[in-house]
Every structure is written in C-alpha cells, then in structure tokens.
Specification:
single chain; mainly alpha; two-stranded antiparallel sheet; 72% helix; DiS_bond_form_DsbB/BdbC
Length: 148
C-alpha cells in the first residue's frame, strides 16, 4: 500500500516545493522593488509600474496557495507571470536598445533605459525582473506538471 501512494506523495511534495520557490521569488522581487523605490529613492518608470502590477499580487496569491497547499493555483497565477514576463522582456529589449527608446512612451521623471536602471552599475533592473518572472513561470509549469 505504501509503494502505491509513495509516488503520489513524492509528486505532491515536488509540486509544493516548486510552489514555495515561486512564492519566495515573488516575495524577494516585491521586497526588492519596494526597497529600490522607497529606500534608494529611484522613481519607477511606466514599464516598471506595469511589471509591479503583475508581480505584487503574486506574493499574496502564491502565499495563500502555499499556506493552504493549493497546487491548482497555477491556473490563476501563471497568466499573471506570463504577462509580467512579457512586460519585462519588452523592458529588457528597450534597455539594451534593441527597441528604439524614441518610440516608447515613458514618464518624464524616470527613464526606461538610463544608467539608474542598473544595480551595482551593471545588472539592469529589467533583466532582474525578467529573471524573477521566468523563475515564477517555470516553477508554476513544474507545479502543473506534478499535479496532473
């Protein structure tokens, strides 16, 4: 009897682990965004706000799902992660000047492609955002895989 339920238990544990990884990633990304904006005093640009719109709810949604052990959350959280990743990808391409900044509407206070958009002088914030969204999306895809 334990040999039949053991693979199911292993799959459930794996799904829960991937869910926790997604939540921790969203939590770190959110706290980092708040720190950069409120403590370091860097004004977020329009594209940063769009990414925050999709990242901040993930902390609550994934946190509640972790607490309740709800691995079906991927159905609701995955679209938020994918849209956020699309904004972060666009922002990264803009930062690397693959897309011309002249065609992008940006706020007058903050630039999407300025030097202030890099941490430690060489790690662009849009790339960090894209990495966070990619980890969340991949983690949720693994949750989906282990719950089917």
């Amino acid at each position: 009897m334990t040999s039949v339920s053991s693979p199911l238990r292993h799959r459930a544990r794996s799904a829960a682990s991937w869910l926790i990884l997604a939540w921790i990633t969203a939590l770190v990304a959110t706290l980092s965004a708040v720190f950069i904006g409120e403590v370091l005093g860097r004004t977020p640009c329009v594209l940063c706000w769009y990414q925050r719109i999709f990242m901040f709810p993930l902390v609550l949604v994934l946190g509640v799902a972790c607490y309740r052990g709800d691995c079906g959350i991927w159905r609701y959280a995955l679209p938020l992660g994918v849209v956020g990743a699309a904004f972060a990808s666009y922002h990264t391409l803009l930062y690397w000047r693959v897309i011309e900044p002249e065609i992008v509407a940006c706020s007058a206070e903050a630039s999407c492609s300025g030097a202030a958009m890099a941490i430690f002088g060489y790690v662009p914030l849009p790339l960090l955002s894209l990495t966070a969204f990619a980890v969340i999306v991949l983690s949720l895809l693994f949750v989906r895989h282990h719950t089917k």
